[in-house]
């Protein structure tokens, strides 16, 4: 019987049998349309596409049999990107045969959480993201992404940003901090408290005029102090292999590379 791809339409029992997740866990993950690959009445592959605010189509392949990949990809037109564990030679080979090529590499880090002596530069203030206004925080986020490999060209989307920030179940107001110079938002650190088993350091960045002054260290120091007080001892993070400053920053906090991810691109 030939495989077929179809939009998920509430087949929780079949999907759960394939992924090992409960119905409640699957419902919690919902939010965007995604595709299943079927072999008769059995799921053999999952694809979650996402059109990012920078206009790039990101493909998140869940558990997939190799034969499901071309069937799911047939539903995707034009340029697209996906990320694969650098150690997953099988998946890399399969996607290579389907036209994907390596675009860039990120290192995965494990970073110990401990109190550090890293004061914020004099004249700057640090507040919780919970106390910020949406518009200037969104503008800062877009500006900082211009220097993050793979995130350039991010466009403001207030609805998406609110859902992914203030309204996110993983928003941690004690570890998502924003640096202010007067009324200007000039840098941030954000640690997400899920959905992964360990908290994730999603971004640490400051605007160019405020770099090399210890602000990034000061932001991480304040976020880590809050996490350490709650008993958190480790966070994860990802850094592009070409980002010398961020790699040095994390290793300076005792971060250790635990693996890598490859971003792959299929041309349109």
Folded structure, characterized:
This protein has 268 residues and is an alpha+beta fold. It folds into 2 domains: 101 residues, Aminopeptidase; 119 residues, Aminopeptidase (3-Layer(aba) Sandwich), CATH 3.40.630. The protein has 8 helices and 12 strands. Strands 1-2-3-4-5-12-6-11-10-9-8-7 form a 12-stranded mixed β-sheet, with helices on both faces. Strand 10, helix 7 and strand 11 form a beta-alpha-beta unit.
Write down the Rg. 20 Å
Q: What count of helical segments does DSSP give?
A: 8
Low-confidence regions = none
Total beta strand runs: 12
> What proportion of the residues is helical, as a percent range?
25-40%
* CATH architectural grouping of the largest domain: 3-Layer(aba) Sandwich
Residue-averaged pLDDT: 93
* CATH class identity of the largest domain: Alpha Beta
Within the largest sheet, what's the order of strands? 1-2-3-4-5-12-6-11-10-9-8-7
H/E topology pattern: EHHEEEHEHEEHHEEEHEHE
What is CATH's topology name of the largest domain? Aminopeptidase
How many structural domains in the coordinates?
2
Largest sheet entry: 12 strands, mixed
CATH superfamily of the largest domain: Gcn5-related N-acetyltransferase (GNAT)
Assess the beta-strand content as a share of residues.
25-35%
Rough outline: elongated
Distance between the termini: 30 Å
Structural class: alpha+beta
């Amino acid at each position: 019987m030939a495989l077929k791809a179809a939009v998920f339409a509430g087949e929780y029992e079949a999907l759960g049998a394939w992924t090992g997740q409960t119905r409640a866990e699957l419902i919690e993950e919902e939010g965007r349309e995604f595709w299943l690959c079927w072999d008769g009445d059995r799921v053999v592959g999952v694809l979650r596409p996402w059109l990012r605010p920078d206009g790039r189509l990101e493909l998140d392949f869940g558990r997939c049999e190799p034969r499901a990949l071309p069937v799911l990809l047939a539903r995707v037109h034009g340029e697209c990107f996906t990320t694969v564990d650098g150690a997953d030679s099988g998946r890399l080979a399969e996607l290579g045969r389907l036209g994907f090529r390596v675009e860039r590499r990120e290192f995965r880090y494990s970073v110990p959480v401990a109190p550090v002596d890293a004061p914020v530069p004099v004249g700057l203030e640090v507040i919780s993201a919970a106390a910020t206004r949406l518009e200037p925080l969104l503008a800062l986020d877009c500006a900082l992404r211009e220097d993050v490999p793979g995130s350039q060209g991010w466009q403001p989307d207030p609805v998406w940003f609110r859902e992914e920030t203030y309204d996110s179940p993983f928003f941690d107001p004690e570890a998502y901090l924003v640096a202010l110079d007067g009324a200007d938002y000039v840098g941030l650190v954000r640690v997400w408290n899920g959905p992964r088993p360990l908290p994730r350091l999603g971004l640490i960045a400051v605007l160019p005029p405020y770099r090399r002054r210890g602000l990034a260290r000061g932001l991480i120091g304040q976020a880590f102090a809050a996490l350490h007080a709650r008993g958190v001892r480790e966070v994860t993070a990802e850094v592009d292999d070409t980002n010398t400053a961020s790699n040095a920053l994390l290793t300076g906090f005792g971060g250790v590379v635990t693996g890598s991810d490859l971003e792959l691109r299929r041309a349109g």
